[in-house]
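User: My instructor asked us to take a sequence, write out its structure as tokens, and then describe one feature of it. I'm not sure where to start. Here is the sequence I was given:
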Amino acid sequence: MGEGLMKSGGYQGTGQYKVRMLMTSKPVLIAISAEQADRLYWLGRYVERVFSTVRIFNQSLDRMIDQDGEDYVAFCKRLSIPSDIYRDAADFEAKYLFDATNPDSIYSNLSRAYDNAIVLRNFITTETMAFIQLALDRLEQGNIAESAFLETQRVSDLLLAFWGSVDDRVVDVERRDLLKVGKYSERLDLMIRLNCQEYAVDELLIRMLSHTRRVEPLLNREVLLQLRSMKEPALESNRAHLLHLINALH
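Assistant: Let's start with the prediction itself. The structure tokens for your sequence are:
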């Protein structure tokens, strides 16, 4: 999925920003390093990427079974990933889900999420991180399971539990906001590529921007101002620019 999709999730600097907490009448300052901010943002993106693409994959798998065995080619085109590395639909199912050497696979993206979660475990809690570990374990078992569909459904359930744990256990609202800016940026990327309806894109953009207020110093401020000022961003003529801005936000 272009530049944003191939991001490794590594840190991009060593500076620190002080972010103001607005949960009490007396301001409290916490320090979030550039590395930590980068990992929080990309943890949110990778978890959402796996969750959303698993859902899209299962829909595509249904069509491959019931209708068109070549539907995986269209699936790859929609997500801007190569399709010529797969021999056929069966090869696509196995490699796209489970191949650790395929940088676009579900397994690779979930592994990146786990790598970031490990580093962040003192901030997101070990209990929250454990849901990603369990999801990765399910994928590893799914490689030898009879039904890939059932295993991916279990992965989806565990990732939903991850977000529930974030809301329940991550105390610092700024860190939650960075996670959710990443989450909704990734979902917007997918919705734009899948040509979702205008109202859905507009509503999600508003939701994503609602999480940027407390973490502005950790984002690209020029891009953020453009996103906030865009008129009718979900129009077909504006979507390419919107996609560019979403992937340049951090």
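For the description part of your assignment, you could build on this observation: The first strand starts at residue 16 and ends at 21. Try explaining in your own words what that tells you about the chain.
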